[in-house]
Every structure is written in structure tokens, then in C-alpha cells.
Amino acid sequence: MLNDPIFQAAFHASPIGQYLLAPTDGLEILAANDAFLRSVGRQREDVTGRPLFDVFPNNPDDPQATGVQDLADSIRRAIDTGATQKMATQRYPIEMQRDGRCWFENMYWSATNTPIHAADGTLLCISHTTIDVTAQALAEQALRASRQEAVRNAQTAQAQRANLEAVLQVAPVGILVVDRDGKVVQRNPAHVELLGRALPRRQECVDFGGWTGWFADGAHAGRQLDAADWPLQRALAGHTVEHCLLRVQSFDSTDIRTMLVSSAPIHDRAGAMTGAVAVATDMEARVRAEQALQEADRRKDEFLAMLAHELRNPLAPIGTAAALLLRSHGDDEQVRRTSNVITRQVKHMSALVDELLDVARVTRGLIELDKTTLDVKRIVAEALEQARPAIEARGHSVQVRQPPRPAFVLGDHKRLVQVLANLLHNAAKFTPEGGLIQVELAIDPHHVRLVVSDSGYGMTPQLIGRAFELFAQGDRTLDRAQGGLGIGLALVKSLVALHGGSVNADSAGPGHGSRFTICLPKVEVQAQPAHHPLRDGHDVLAAGTPLTILAVDDNEDALAMLHLLLSAQGHHVVTTPDPREALRRADVAAPDACVLDIGLPDLDGYALARALRANPRTRHALLIALSGYGQDTDREKASAAGFDAYFVKPVDAEALSAALARARAA
């Protein structure tokens, strides 16, 4: 049969792969046609006469390979039953060899095993026909995988939509999603609650012309939004809008709420814009809370200013009484000592009040610096003069080291003296008696450095870390021998920062003293410091003839003490608590000087000063303001009203006498 020419021609011409197997245990390959040999990449001599599973073994590296066993079982059933056995499509990797390489290539086959018998029934061979369906199987696998992936993606997308829907439903911010045409895709309950249900629409698209809102901050604060200004509309135009604070009217009513709105375009994976989303956060409660805090802060500052005024009012007659007591009974040692005690305590109380007011102004950014070019050496001299009583009272020694040339900075003379004097007072206060205080002034290429060091109690690292915080203090004894409110260094830091400088503290530890370093920007151009339009009176000595003085204060004790003080200096004093009565008396007496309280009833001191300046009989009189208010704005208002000098209660008797000396000189 195998040598029959007709069989040979038909066998090898068949497009279907086929081989014949001997019915032996080894299942030797008797013949293989050309179609099969092409599909497995073999030559006829490579397979003919060899056992089937020696030529086509399982892949030893593939634990899931079952091709050999499945084919052997099918052939055995064909032999046993004498019937054709059709096999399901199976994976049967074929060992390939090429260019010295050997590998197993995954192939899929659809095969049939048919027993061939002679006329007498003798089994001659087994015909194995097989079709290579690898491409089809792989395509079906890819299709199945694609379908499974599509199902998984759909399930994932559905889960994501469900999650997004759940998030939108409970999100505390309003979310509005539209497509690129402006049609609403999603609007969560918070957005409805925030803006109302009746969302303005035109042909199913959001109608921004029906929205009403105003900008709430920035350069456009208070301006009503046009349709193109709305963040969502801008997002549809391709722009991203972040943190736009708006006041928006409800769609359902006239209610207006403050909200923070952000918006952005939405793009697909290809980058094409598919819509936009806007997120609105309700800020109404926060804005109201901030307004309440600002109002409370404003009331606090008003209270502090009024407290200072009310505290200074009783201090004024006390201080004046002490000065008068010393003037009239200065030869009595007990009276002199008592008067000095009262004067010191009045000054201490006044300094505490000033610190409270200063810290209130600094924390709110209300301090305005009168900057001029200053020689820091003058600052050092004046600060030392201010701190000298405290230094001498504790028996400290002072060493000053400074360069011979000027050290110029751009700053406020009064505030820089205040800064350095504060550090010197602290050094005096926190150094045991008989200590050493050193002041060093140095000039760097770009900065002027001021260093104040002492041999005092020193500071722990923890205290250094919070030394410049408001109300920060070190450990105190029960008697609070050092006193103070713990706000001085906070003021120092804030005032230095306003000058563009820095300040830091250092200490080797408790018992090793402290060191404070101020660094200020240096300027090269020398200029003379400007003087405040209101003089403090310390540069003129009291001398000359008695004056006629009009004194006006609604505090009867303060007015009585002022009358006694001025009379003791030899002046003729006219007093009244009534500002309108003061105008009448001024017109009669034509005083040389007027000492006026600012906080007068009915007609305040500013209005009274303007009226006196308008009267020809008092136009050239020296006008001196006395007030419990000491802010820079108060001094500016006094200067504008026509005052020549401004004193914060309690007034220093010597300073007042010096100021009156100008009227004598005139």
C-alpha cells in the first residue's frame, strides 16, 4: 500500500497533514505527508521509522503540557475500538530546531485517529490526520481575553461610577459637572443645597447669564460677575480657575452666600476637552467668624486704648501731685523720698500701659515707621540715657564698643531707641546687682550689628526658643522680683522686622548671661534725621517771666493738680473743665499758653485747639495737648489741629515746664 503510486500521489498531495503509525507499542511513524512535515518543520528522514513520542515529546519545562498523553489515549481507543477517534482542539507544543537553537513552539491541532484494517480484519496501521489551527486558536484566545477584559473594564467602570456617585452624594462641597456644550452631567446634593434647585438653563445648557454674583476679594472685589466671568464658564473656555472667592445669590431666593470656587476643564485620554467641573465650598460661616474675630480684635484695641486713657487719667494727678509735693517740700527727706517713690511707680505704670498699646498695634500691623537716615551711634547714646536709671539702680557697669565712623541705617529714630532701651532694661533687670552690661556696635559690608550682652541669669535652650513670643517669660519666683508682662522682646522682634532686620538671642545657659544681636540693613548715604512736628520740650530750659495759662481738663483731680503745679512755678492759671467756657475765658484772658485735655465732653481737644487758633486773641498762644492716648495717629491729629506739643498722661513736670519756656522765650 505504501508503495502504491496512486496512494503516494494522493497521500503527499493532500493539503491536510497526515502520518501513518505502526500498531506497535512504540507507534513508529511509517510515513508522513508533505503537508504535515511543513507544519512541524521536519524532514521525512527525521521522522520515518522513529517512535512517535520520541519525535514529538512533551515540553519538559511546561508542567501543564498534556499533548503526549491526550494523543496516546486517543490512539489507544482507536486501536481498541476499531473506530475513528476525533480529538478536540488541543495544545501540543512542537519542538523546533533552527540555526543551532532548540525551542518548543505552542501549536494547536484538530486531529483524527483512524485504524486501517486489511480485508481479513488485520490492523495494518493508524492514520493520524491533523489540521494546524494555531492561528484560529490564538485568535479565539485573544477574543476571549478581550471579551473578559471588556467585562472587567465594564465592571470596574460601573464600580467607579457607583463609588463616584456615592462620593458626590455625601461630599460636603458643591460639585457641578457639564459636558463641553454646557449640559449638566452631574450635580450633587451639596451644590443644590448651596445654590438652590432652579439652576438657570437655556435649551438644556447652563445659562450663566441667569447667575448673580460678585467678586469677594482681590482687585475686583465688589464687582458683579458677567456671564464670561463665572469659573465654570472659564473652564469651558479651556482655563483652570483656582480659589475664586465669590458672593453668590441663590437660584431659589435672594439669599447670598460666600463661597470659594475652583473649576477646570475635563479631557479624555486623547486630550480632547469633553466638559468641565466646578467645585464650590461654603465659606459663609468662616467669613462670618473671621469678621467676628476682626470685630472682636477691633473692640479689643479700642478697649486697650480706652483702658490706657482711663489708667492715665488717675495717674496724671498722682504724678503732678508728687512733683508738686517735691517742689514745695523738697527739703523734707521723708517727703522727698515719698515723692520719688510715687514718681517712679507712676512712670513704671505708664511704661506698662505703653507696652500694652504698642503690642496691640504691632500685632495688627498698625505701626507706621517715620523712616529717615540715622546714625546708630546716636541711637545707642539715647537708649543708654533712657536705661541709665535702671542700670545705676542695680549698680551695673556698662562697656560700650563702637567704631569711630558713623553707622547709618534707614529707620524710625523713636522706635529704634525703644528697641535698644528695651534690651538694656532687660539686661539690667535680669542681671544680679553689680553685673556687667556690654553694648557693641559693628559695621559689616551690608549690615549694622548691635549686640547687647550681660553677665546675668542667662537662658535655657527652651526659653531661647520662645524668647520672642508674646508673653513668654522664664521661671519666676513667687515675689516676681523681675516684674514685667513678657511682651518686651516680642515688640523688639516686630519693630526690628519692620526695619527689614533681624534679632536673635543666645546664652551659654543659666548663670552664664545672655546675648542679643540686632542686625539692620546699612545705608551708605548720610542724611540728617527728621524731627517730629510735635516737640517734646526737653531741649528748652524753663526760665523767664510768668505766663498766663489756660488749663482745661474734665478730670477735676487732674485739673486741680495741674493748677497747683503751674501756680507753684509762678504762672497765672485759669482753669475750667468745660471746653465752651474755656473759649469764653480765653477770649477774655488772651493766655500765653493753653494746656488742653483731648478727651473733653461736647467739644474735644482737637476742636477746641482749632477754635483757639481761629481766634485772633489766642492765635499765637502755645497749645499743649494732654491725653491718655499715645498712638502716632493721635499725635498726627493733634499736629493737624494746631497743637505745638503733645504729652501722654501722666505728664512729666519738667518736660511740661520746658515746653512752656518756649512761650516765655516768645
From TrEMBL:
Q: Which protein are we looking at?
A: histidine kinase
Residue ranges of domain PAC in the record: 239-295
Question: Which species is this record about?
Answer: Pseudoduganella flava
Query: Which Gene3D superfamilies does the record associate with it?
Result: 1.10.287.130, 3.40.50.2300, Histidine kinase-like ATPase, C-terminal domain, PAS domain
Membrane disposition: Multi-pass membrane protein
Reactions the enzyme catalyzes: ATP + protein L-histidine = ADP + protein N-phospho-L-histidine
Tell me the GO molecular function terms: phosphorelay sensor kinase activity
Q: Where is the PAS domain?
A: 160-196
> What Enzyme Commission number does this protein have?
2.7.13.3
